[in-house]
Amino acid sequence: MISLRDLVKVFRTGSESVRALDGVTIDVAEREFFVLLGLSGSGKTTLLRCVAGLEKPDGGEVSIGSMLVSSAERNFFMGPESRGVGMVFQSYAVWPHMTVYENVAFPLSHGPRRLTREQIKQKVMNALAMVQLAGLADRPAPFLSGGQQQRVALARALAVEPKVLLMDEPLSNLDARLREEVREEIKNLSSAFGIAVLYVTHDQVEAMALADRVAVMSKGRLLHCAPPRELYETPASREVCEFLGTVNLLEGVIANGGRVDTELGALVCAVPDPGVKKVSVAIRPEELAISPVATGLENEFAARLEGTTFLGELTICDLVVNEKKLRFKTTASVAPRQRLYVRLPADKLKLFPRD
Questions:
Q1: What's the domain count of the chain?
Q2: Do 203 and 24 form a contact (C-beta atoms < 8 A)?
Q3: Residues near 289 by Cβ (< 8 Å), separated by ≥ 6?
Q4: Whole-prediction pTM value?
Q5: pLDDT digits (tens, 9 = 90+) for 76-128
Q6: Gyration radius from the chain CA atoms
Q7: CATH code for the domain of 287
Q8: SS3 call for 303
Q9: What is the per-residue DSSP string for 222-248?
Q10: In this structure, what DSSP letter does residue 39 have?
Q11: Residue 126: in which H helix or E strand, if any?
Q12: CA-CA distance, 333 to 255, in Å (whole number)?
């Protein structure tokens, strides 16, 4: 549904230039919820704006469905009004001098399609019903809560019956509880509407909760694209691993016989590339195993419990092994004992080359 080929975008200010997108290639399938994940400055919003037609790429091509909408090589660029996309902005972009109805109706009454007043009314009320705001059609926009304003923005994007829906960090201005509620609504609406969604966020939890696939971006490049579970459990690089959740990292050197020497001691694990000597060893906090007594299993070390943090459904434990700090997460209650044993299961260890 959305196809990007070798997309390049360069911003220039005087003698300086920033390569915001550096040869990005992505395919978003029909009805797929595709999330672009990255820190500020990674290029994710620039990519979204190139798809929307709000930025003109300096290289590569953009297609929506079977329609080519941008090609730097052919010097072709189609404006945003002709692309058939709906967009929800981070700032809502709800006009304060209009009612809810007028906000949603605006792109229909001022767009390229000629619609009758009755057709506009039907589309607006259908869109408001989908976001549960049909009863607030006549309310002035300034009298809405943040969550309601975000729903108005979503209804306005859906009212034009877009081929694809583009969303730029739409939940970042909401409080935590409301963010979770609206997130669920967006997921359900996209499924019910049956359209492709290209969604930008810096929030890893948001990305994993919403996405069919996630593309992690950094410095204008695509680092790894995969379903959320695959991305979390088998990241392509240390950078991706660190970005997606908390991770314990150890510096190691590969020895003979499938062993890695680390600051904890020797670890037994699968070595994917025997030619690499220096590695970073990663393991998630929830993948560690702790025991009050030694089990005699491989990769087990005596540890000291320095402290715990209770977070409701989780308890986070700070452990020290051979003066190296490790973090452990568990849903179980942890006894306040100082001495215990921690094990790093070999099948949970991830190895990444390092300089």
A1: 2
A2: no
A3: 342, 343, 345
A4: 0.89
A5: 999 998 898 999 988 878 999 999 999 999 999 987 778 899 999 999 999 99
A6: 25
A7: 2.40.50.140
A8: strand
A9: EEEEE-HHHHHHS-SSHHHHHHSS--E
A10: -
A11: helix 117-130
A12: 37
